Amino acid sequence: MEDNSKPLHSSKDLSILIEELRLFRDNRGWKTNHNPKNLAVSVVIEASELLEHFQWKSEKESRYLSQSEENKVIEEMADVFIYLLYLSEELNVDLVSAAFNKMNKNSLRYPAENSSYKLKNKQTSSINKIDEKSIIPTNQLSIYNEYSEYFDSLIEYSDSENEIKFLKEFIQTNFVKPKILECGCTTGRLTIPLFLNDFNVTGLDSIESMIILAKEKNSGIHFILADFSSIPLNNESFDVVFCGQGTINRLINEKNLVGFFDEVFRILKTNGKLIIIEDCKTQRKFDYNKSFENEFIQINIKISSKINSGLILKNYNYLIQDKKSNKSKNIQENTIEKIWGLKEIQSLLELSGLEIEKTFGEFVLNKSFESKNENLIIIAKKTLN
Fold it and tell me: What 3-state class would DSSP assign to 96?
């Protein structure tokens, strides 16, 4: 459930809310009925009305309510809260202090180190730890913000043709006038060509400079700046969500990737599709030197990589020469990526309620840090089984 509007009262304004509740009650002459027994009964009645909205729903369905159901649930939660505040006033209880005191008791009664869930996670988690001595990564996003203005020059757009062709054919075959979201849209590499082919497509990225450039290139598209674990879009509002393998690679642990898949599940309509797509026709290399030059700029790129605890640790070195201003810029950065295997992705998709329908290829690296398959495509469907 999400509500992007700002609340009238935040928790720090609780005293203001209580005073307004008093005025509301007294102006209607209801004070005589507000004894502890009546108020306690009212709390239970309102809680039962809250519960009614979840009756017969599965665990997954209870997390992803329709907008009208969500609004009703919020109102019932507010009713429970209001009656608790009235009851706390009648009994002269500081409800906030009481909650803190109860949490202190709970922390003594249920120590974190004795938690069976925590112990289980320690034993079974497949998240790999990073050897901090070998690399101290800086902000993952800074490298992309630094070179975003040169992004279109660095990316070989001919590599996008197969991805665009596949997306067009798949979407047209399976949907009628669908709403589409690209996660990790960068400067609109795939979003803009789809829009120009009359698709209703939205672009989302977590890098502000990329979104700014995308909007400058095409103001007719809705581009959104947001974190992948908290997408500011309504429940069940898209038919198709797609992203590249590179977007997945930058979510380097299970928690982050499952958080993204959970958001995809939330915003997809039932039977909607998630597509993870990567065109590897040119054999992507993670360890290479490359140069690019036109009449405006010259860019020399050196990327060196090594594997540590199952992660790829990459060192970027960009030397950019602006011919127009005769100024040069050197960008150096360390980043971390994880190449998720198909079985890992499948298990994490299933945790989020997304079921794989089809797969093509497997993204693997050889000892020279080269991807050998031509394409990786994963198609998953939202189900409510």
Answer: helix
CA-nearest of 228, 281, 287 to 255 is: 228
In 3D space, the residue among 150, 123, 161 whose CA is nearest the CA of residue 210 turns out to be 150
Cα separation, 335 vs 130, whole angstroms: 12
pLDDT tens, position by position, 249-291: 888 788 889 999 999 999 999 999 999 987 554 445 556 676 7
Candidates 191, 189, 310; CA nearest to 249 is 310
Arch. (CATH architecture) of 142-382: 3-Layer(aba) Sandwich (3.40)
Tokens of 298: 């010259």
| pLDDT confidence band for 381 (50 / 70 / 90) | very high
Quick one: DSSP state of residue 383?
Answer: -
Residue 340 CB partners (closer than 8 Å, separation 6+): 248, 249, 257, 363
Same-fold call for 11-93 versus 142-382: no
Cα gap 177→203, rounded to integer Å: 17
Q: What is the pairing mode between strands 268-279 and 238-244?
A: parallel
14-15-21-24 Cα dihedral, nearest 10 degrees: -130
Predicted pLDDT of residue 182: 96
CA distance linking residue 215 with residue 177, whole number of Å = 23
According to DSSP, the residues that pair with 311 across neighbouring strands are 308
- CATH number at 11-93: 1.10.287.1080
| Domain definitions of the chain by residue range | 11-93, 142-382
Q: Which residues of 238-271 are buried (b: 16+ CB within 10 A; e: fewer)?
A: bbbbbbbbebbbbbbbbebbbbbbbbbbbbbeee
